[in-house]
Amino acid sequence: MWKSIVRYVSLGSLLAALTIACTVGNVAAGETATALPKPAVDQPLASSPGQETAVVAGGCFWGIQAVFQHVKGVISATSGYSGGAKATAEYEVVSTGTTNHAESVKIVFDPSKITYGQLLQVFFSVAHDPTELNFQGPDEGTSYRSEIFFASPGQEKTARAYIAQLDAAHVFAKPIVTRIEPLKGFYAAEGYHQDYLIHNPTQPYIVFNDLPKLAALKRVWPDYYRPDPVRLASR
To answer: How many angstroms separate the CA atoms of 225 and 118, rounded?
Structure first.
């Protein structure tokens, strides 16, 4: 639980530990990230502006939220919890791994500017490593699993077809382990988790795990990238 430990240890000791522990996370989400093929099954861009919601999980929600805050067409990105009951949607409880919740991000986007399938391209290529089962980088446990919570039959169809497409093309060295389940509820995380990278860009965890994701987004998907993030809250 490096994300929890980061609040309690000294900067020097954490830097030394994370230098070792986060190597895998950096490589998976940063330096080796490459563009993925377009989804063969996807909805076309809508003819007029609107709003649609996508919910994904892929490790610590700090980095996932930050990535999608920099994607064109995204209206908002909120860190939270999905998969479990409302009563257990609290950070310290979810971190025990007993709630069935995954740290998730709710993405509200304009389907006239970006499609659901294009969001999945970003999700699978630079936001996380979809071949890691119940862990991402230094964080381990079911709450850090890779999962797509679909909000409509169309989203489910696109997600299942895209995973099958990527596996068939052997895009990754290992099979994709991302779960796909219907969205039954999303519960926003505590306020201090929101816009976390924006407010804490020099924190060692962010530097080692999440800033490389933003660099990869800019490098791999320049047409999707926007330099100024859409903020959820102002301080």
So the answer is: 12
Q: What sign results for the dihedral spanned by CA atoms 129, 23, 4, 93?
A: positive
Domain 2-220 has CATH 3.30.1060.10: yes
Q: What separation, in Å, do the N-terminal and C-terminal C-alpha atoms of the chain show?
A: 27
pTM, whole model, 2 decimals? 0.89
Among all residues, which ones are annotated catalytic? 60
Which amino acid belongs to residue 124? F
pLDDT of residue 210: 98
**Three-state secondary structure of 147-190:** EEEECCHHHHHHHHHHHHHHHHCCCCCCCCCCEEEECCCEEECC
Domain boundaries, the chain: 2-220
Distance CA 146, CA 134 (A): 7
Q: What are phi and psi of 146, to 5 degrees?
A: -95, 125
The structure tokens 């939220």 sit at 65
Strand partners, 139: 136
pLDDT in the model for residue 10: 41
Q: What percent of the chain has pLDDT over 70?
A: 86
Pull the structure tokens for residue 95: 């971190």
DSSP states along 9-51: S-HHHHHHHHHHHTHHHHIIIIIT--PPPPPSS-PPPPSS---
**Residues β-bridged to residue 109:** 52, 74
